[in-house]
Amino acid sequence: RVSLLAAPTETFAAVAFEPMISKALDYLAQVGCRRVAVLSNLCDETSAEWLTSAIQQRGMTTRPYWIQAVHLMAPMAARRVVNLLFHGGQDERPDGFLITDDNLVEYAIGGLVDAAVQVPSELRVVAHCNFPVTAPTVLPVKRLGYRISDVMDACLELLAEQGQGKPPGLRLVNAVFEDEPTVPIGSRAMEPYARAALPATGAGPGS
To answer: 55, 112, 149, 190 — which has fewest CB within 10 A?
Structure first.
């Protein structure tokens, strides 16, 4: 018996959600973004505060109203939220945008189209996904997420250990960009990201 969680513990397989956020923000900083907006399903103030801090630690800025959340029971609301975030005529607009849940991506991209945002010349977008199933988008985005094969490998390793009478241990499934090789489960290559822990909220990336 194996549980798959969005926050690591000592006895479960976990998708490395918080490290995924850190990796996405690192990318936005590396490509020169200065003003970052985030759309997620994390509807609590603690998460918003952590996201703000993580953005600022990388030398970028954000605003309280650039950190938005949409409940996964109503993902279609993301279209209007994103249109509001990026509508024309503003003195200041984000030039980096992170969408942390794949259930919101289609609607969020629709909002960018409605706001007539030019991607990637005006805005760089990083969007969560679960490989190999990726929904097509009308705008270019940088996809970051989890390979289902990596998740299955982690679960099978835990099941094998339990079958041998060993106590289950943590398997951290790392996020990868679409164009990069798989990072081995529990690899030290992810340790800098693993230290950037988001407070547990009970919410995680969609499937």
So the answer is: 149
Q: How far apart are CA 52 and CA 63, in angstroms?
A: 8
- Residue 206 — left, alpha, or beta (φ > 0 → left; ψ -120 to 50 → alpha)? beta
The pLDDT value given to residue 1 = 44
At residue 17 the predicted structure's pLDDT band, cuts being 50, 70 and 90, is: confident
Mean pLDDT of the chain: 80
Contacts of 74 (CB under 8 A, 6+ apart): none
Asked if 86 and 111 touch (Cβ cutoff 8 Å), the reply is yes
Q: Token pair 């990072």 is at which residue? A: 183
3-class secondary structure, 61: strand
Residue (of 9, 12, 14) closest to 205 by Cα position: 14
Give me the mean pLDDT over the 201-207 stretch. 42
Q: Which of 12-16, 23-27, 203-207 reaches the highest mean pLDDT? A: 23-27
88 contacts 59 by C-beta, under 8 angstroms: no
Exposed e or buried b per residue across 189-203, where buried means at least 16 C-beta atoms within 10 angstroms of its C-beta: ebeebbebebeebeb
